[in-house]
Amino acid sequence: MDRLTIGKVAQLAGVGVDTIRFYERKGLLDSPPRSLSGYRQYSLETVARIRFIRRAKELGFSLKEIKELLDLRMSPETTCEDIRQRARAKIRDIEGRLEALKRMKAVLEKLADSCQGKGPLHNCPILEALEERDEKTTPE
């Protein structure tokens, strides 16, 4: 039988033991059966599931989205189109974040270019820009 300890599962899946326990608490992994001595006994399927979770995280899926993907994967009604729609939604999300990062980069470049890199810290244009108060949100 392919009963593995939590340490062996962690090693095979490339994660820490705490990560496995965290995934169990979040409902991404089922609680495994225990041996008579109380040790958790995992199957090789758990390793595959953790690897799935890791790859999905690397692609930007949140734990909530990963749980949904795992649930869809187990549902006989799920189609490839359902999963494709999730992937397209994640692509749109990533594109939005990329645009936001480009805007942040442009602002930081302007701030860095405005700084001579000389003079006292209290005259630093970067710090001054970060300390500017928004007239609309600053209490009077």
UniProtKB/TrEMBL annotation:
Keywords noted in UniProt: DNA-binding, Mercuric resistance, Mercury, Transcription, Transcription regulation
Keyword Mitochondrion found: no
GO molecular function list: DNA binding; DNA-binding transcription factor activity; mercury ion binding
PROSITE patterns: HTH_MERR_2
InterPro entries: DNA-bd_dom_put_sf, MerR, MerR-type_HTH_dom, MerR_fam
Pfam families: MerR_1
One of the GO BP terms on file: response to mercury ion
Alphabetical list of SUPFAM superfamilies matching this protein: Putative DNA-binding domain (SSF46955)
Entry-linked PANTHER family: HEAVY METAL-DEPENDENT TRANSCRIPTIONAL REGULATOR HI_0293-RELATED, REDOX-CYCLING DRUG-SENSING TRANSCRIPTIONAL ACTIVATOR SOXR
Role description: Mediates the mercuric-dependent induction of mercury resistance operon. In the absence of mercury MerR represses transcription by binding tightly to the mer operator region; when mercury is present the dimeric complex binds a single ion and becomes a potent transcriptional activator, while remaining bound to the mer site.
Name of this chain's protein: Mercuric resistance operon regulatory protein
